[in-house]
Specification:
Length: about 500
Amino acid sequence: MRRYLLGSLLYALSVFPALAEEASVPVWWESVLGYTQLPVGRMQETLQKACELITTKSLKPVMASELAFESVKSLSTIDQKINVMKDGKRVLILADGKILKSFRSPEDTDCANWTRLMLAAAIEARPFSPKAQQADAEEFFNIFLNASLGIIDSYSHYIGPDPAEPISLKNPASIGISYRRIGKYLEITEIIPDGSASHSDLAVADRISAINGKAVKDLSRIEVLNLLRGEEGSEVFLTLRKDGKTQQRTLKRTKVSASPVTYYFDEKNKIMTIKITGFTPKTVTGLKATLHKAKNLKAAGLIIDLRSNTGGLLKEAVLAADLFLPEDLLMIKTKGRITETEQQYTSTPKEDRPVYPIVILTDSKTASSAEFFAGVLQEYRHAVIVGTPTYGKGVIQANDSLPDGGQLYLTWAQFYLPSGYSPQTYGIYPNICSAGITLLTLDNVPAAQTQLKPWRTGTKAFKQKALKFCPPEVRKDNPADDEIARQLLLDPDRYVRSLSYFSLDSERK
């Protein structure tokens, strides 16, 4: 009889796999659901999908248990009297120091049940916290997902679907940032090229605690959006944590300019200065048009200004650099934990390639795809870099849609220059360092650093020492850099002596 019952059960589980799946649901799950106004089914679907994407694709390996525990800990950002702790194999939810619920921890890789535990923790906390009762599903998504993404890096973040009722504006504008909610702060994850933030000293990882005097912790997602947006030309007053200190900044709301590429032509010296503020879908088109003008004006040299260019689309930067390079040169490799991230791009054949002596200007806010553009031309001896070391972002984010309509931006790959070097952490080192140099001290400009192999392949200690010699600085629109570049282009011998010795071209020889 026992053998018959066991056989029947195994048959049922094989025919109806859903029954087998339900059997793995922890016993506490049904008991915590009870009556709640939260859309638990939709929330479970969204959070579980996010967990699966992160644990599968993230460049940094991370387990479901790490993500979930970081998420439930963030309940204290809604109400400080809610606390979460681990006790061996159990997760405890506390209010005012008293245990509300004790859950047995799922397996470390079990996204489904860690998602259930996250929701169960939120449901158990709600009756003991008026603030938690007021939070809707989207608030929980913002808190849970951005808290878990915060253990990966400063760039991964979640953005919810567009709110249904933003304030109606005649000339809508913003300060040009992307952000994620971390506790009582908005942490900046991206500075949008050519927005007002890109013209300030705001940086990725700075944390905003108040907008126009209103504490972020007291604002809903829509209220935050409506405070950051406004009529073009109006101002936003920010209170933030920057460099370990509480500081204030006032920024004007602006529209991003139509083209990220502008130019100025020095008729006397035949030098064209091309400023690229970001790599957007319009960058390559704008750069091609500008190079066509340089040809018609019979330019003798180019200054490409990437100072405070915080990056943008890596694909656009690759296509922009390709304009200057002869065909069949390896330009970039990307790599992550999954095969889809393993890509490489080789320069393409072209009928009319612009050949000029080029000086690229960089500073500490030159980041991401702008670092690639500067680095690849430097490695192939197609440009001399003048300025200071760049920001140091060599990673790439993937963008995935979640069931709730929000977007998950996840760091999933790292890019490498032809030499195999990635600018992640240490950035691109200039050939000529202008840190601390002004127009009055131009005679103190150091000799060109042409042997870059130690920088590309050197130890962490070597790079830190080099950064002390040439510290990163924000040098946007600094006239000393422009003058150093001009002098280089007017002295062909000095320009050639300033090019990097270390390149794949020179190694082939």
